[in-house]
Amino acid sequence: MNLLNKLKDEITELKDELIELRRDFHMYPELGFKEVKTSKRVAEYLKRLGLEVREKIAHTGVVAILEGKGEGKTVMLRSDMDALPVEEQNKVPYRSRNEGIMHACGHDGHMAMLLVAAKILSHHKEEISGKIMFLFQPNEEVAGAHQMIEEGALDDPHPDGAFAIHLWTPIESGKMGISAGPVMAALDEFKVRIKGRGGHTGAPHTAIDPVLTAADFIQSVQMIQTREIDVLKPTLIMFGLVNAGTATNVIPEHIDLGGTIRYLYEGGSESPEKPLVRFERILKKVCEAHQCTYELEFIPSNSTLINDDKMANLVSSIAKDVVGPENITSYIGTAGEDFAEFAKIIPSCFYFVGAGNSTKDIIYPHHHPLFDIDEDVLPIGVEMHIRTAMAFLRKE
Question: In sequence order, what are the beta bridge partners of 84?
């Protein structure tokens, strides 16, 4: 009997191990590029499977290769590893032991699913034609994929296709979100300093007020997303930091602003939308109107994540067998996801496995201190990893 015929049984046999792995990762979270203990455990697990393992790519990244019996293509399955600087509020036995750090985005589950998938696949390598790359990436929250690529993670072998799963509490357990085309937004951070001339709040005519300038800019720049770019091409300009002044009766010399720009299209300076170009144009003109000057820094985080049509169709066809066609939905979000850097150079599909369950009070959004996942969906992720990899390698 081949693997696919008995796959569910093999996953069921490993469900306790799957949950134990997830909970262990959850109890000992580490921030991006600091996943030292996490990556060590991942690498040791993969080595025990007899896989070829490379470590310390982009500081803490791990890549393992499973060689099948026959010649063929290479497929990449990816998991992220980093946690967030969040103090966990869940009262559960597997609550984070690391103060101020929490797996509040599901990456603990991602690692567990991919490790167990690697274990099952390694026991059936005689049925695999080609190679499977298991890539465990650091620092997804602040764009570690680019550094892994720069350090040669994809060079030998270079994958012909790639898949990644995100556990997603906004989608109900037992359902999956799969879409072709743009699915997660590009993310650029910005830092702005608007410089005026300080003075006394009782004599504002003797000063140049950067606070008033900033207020005008924060309002004016919103017209990009409502008046300048097609509303069917989502653009979000959000300010998360405003900092100025030292006293209530002093007009400050400058004000600092920070935030994010997210969009579901390519968005470069030569694109029709060019949101960053428009952003600086408005900043410049508003500052000129108020007799201020400015400093502006853009900090790229990740590109728009765009799924390949054929890869998305492949995932959808397999998901219908795993959870049923009635449980497949389309999902597009404006959160950032740096799997986009892999998808730019490899035909890929990034998709969502629902992990929210109101009956278990698993209702909180990602990055919330009460975030958790429905562990009963972890076997779905394992099965999807295995089935998509094998289907891709079989496909001519």
Answer: 102
Averaged confidence pLDDT in the chain:
96
Closest CA to 335 of 311, 304, 371: 304
How many angstroms separate the CA atoms of 256 and 211, rounded?
9
Contact assessment for residue 311 and residue 161, using Cβ atoms and an 8 Å cutoff: yes
Angle between helical axes of 3-13 and 15-27 (0-180°, round to 10): 50
Cα 201 from chain centre: 45
Q: What is the pLDDT of residue 1?
A: 54
First to last CA, the chain: 23
Query: What number of CA atoms fall less than 13 Å from residue 346's CA on the CB side?
Result: 26
Check: CB of residue 121 under 8 Å from CB of residue 52. Answer: no
Tokens of 381: 């992720």
* β-strand partners of 168: 354
215-262 pLDDT tens trace: 999 999 999 999 999 999 999 999 999 999 999 999 999 999 999 999
Please give the angle made by the CA atoms of 190, 194 and 200, to the nearest 5 degrees: 145
The per-residue pLDDT for range 371-388, each reduced to its tens digit, is: 999 999 999 999 999 999
pLDDT on residue 396: 56
Phi, psi of 136, rounded to the nearest 5 degrees = -110, 115
Q: Can you give the C-alpha Rg of the chain in angstroms?
A: 24
Please check whether residue 213 is in contact with residue 291, taking contact to mean a CB–CB distance below 8 angstroms: no
Residue 35 in contact with residue 82, Cβ under 8 Å? yes
Res. 395: pLDDT tops 80: no
* Dist. CA 342–CA 146, nearest whole Å: 8
List CB contacts of 298: < 8 A, sequence separation 6 or more.
188, 189, 190, 276
Considering the entire predicted model, what is its pTM? 0.92
Closest CA to 134 of 179, 80, 84, 178: 80
What are the catalytic residues?
A: 82, 140
Buried/exposed 328-355: b ≥16 CB within 10 Å, e otherwise: beebebbebbbbbbbbbebbbbbbbbbb
